[in-house]
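Preliminary data (for renewal application), iron/sulfur cluster complex.
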Amino acid sequence: MGNEKQILTDGFGRTHNYLRISLAERCNLRCTYCMPEHGVDLTPKEHLMTAEEILAIARLFVDHGVNKIRLTGGEPLIRKDFPAILEGLSALPVKLSITTNGVIVDRFFDLFQETGLQDVNISLDTLNADRFFTLTRRNHFEPVYKNILKAAALGFNTGINVVLLKDQTEAEILDFVELTNKLNVRVKFIEFMPFAGNKWDLSKILTGNEVLEIVKESYTTSIIKLADDRNSTSVNYQIEGYEGSFGMINTVSNPFCQGCNRIRLTADGSLKNCLFSNIETKLLPSFREGKDISPLIAGAMGRKKRMRAGMDTIEQFSATEKIEQNRSMITIGG
Ligand code: SAM
Ligand code: SF4
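Predicted structure:
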């Protein structure tokens, strides 16, 4: 491979070995922070990657140094051909993981075990069924919660993604931390990020630091700071003697772009060099014409900015025009 691997190194010397693939733009939930109330314009099916295309493009990335793939969406598990995609990917020399809303994930636990997928992140923003309905516009709290318990019991490396919403999540922080007492799960508190149509503004931000302050008030001396990986997006902690851990993803208040190793492939086969970039590189049309897409990938990596697609300051980050030009999270693949 030699020099070839360098197409995934950007102008700041960051090497990208972690590919997040969105398998679907559709979803069986309607989270308010993820998509506009009226829904999103869906890409016609013929412009979405087929299972074969996903596998072939993923293989190309692996040939260039990717060794970690996370499947996401939309909801990745609603794709009918999900089993075939996972089986195909499991033949590649990569560590596989998934982010799912957990509604139907129990149907796939056997498949995950067969294919060696061990990292399962399930999104759950509240432990209250009524609030779950308000946030997701669907009534599926029970299955999601039960599936988190099942995933942990089956020994999956189980994460719980919690989006932090000001004046809402504060009251549940300690309940989530307490969940890690007897349950070996990693709770990830994620700062609310701006995307098209999600009515974001700075006043709705509950920061990772504010979360830590809430935890400190109750646990004073028993909070242990865990070592974070070089490429970690979260700052991680554990309460002494507890099975699980918790961490904060401070994308808005304290971005972690310096160690970024992530790139994203959208369901319609576009490469996003940053979650916040509204400039995408369409790979699928050229791929379908049988062209070598490596130069397109290299070009996209060369254009990657130092921080949050060029929004270095919080003021730039809050500029709504730039945000509205980006996709909604549901069609990016978080
Ligand atoms: N449907 C799957 C799920 O919900 O886990 C996978 C896709 S979802 C877009 C991936 C992650 O992005 C979820 O954990 C979700 O909570 C998070 N997310 C969506 N919109 C967000 C936003 N505006 N700010 C922060 N996180 C967000
Ligand atoms: Fe669907 Fe996940 Fe977005 Fe919620 S966060 S609408 S579950 S894609």
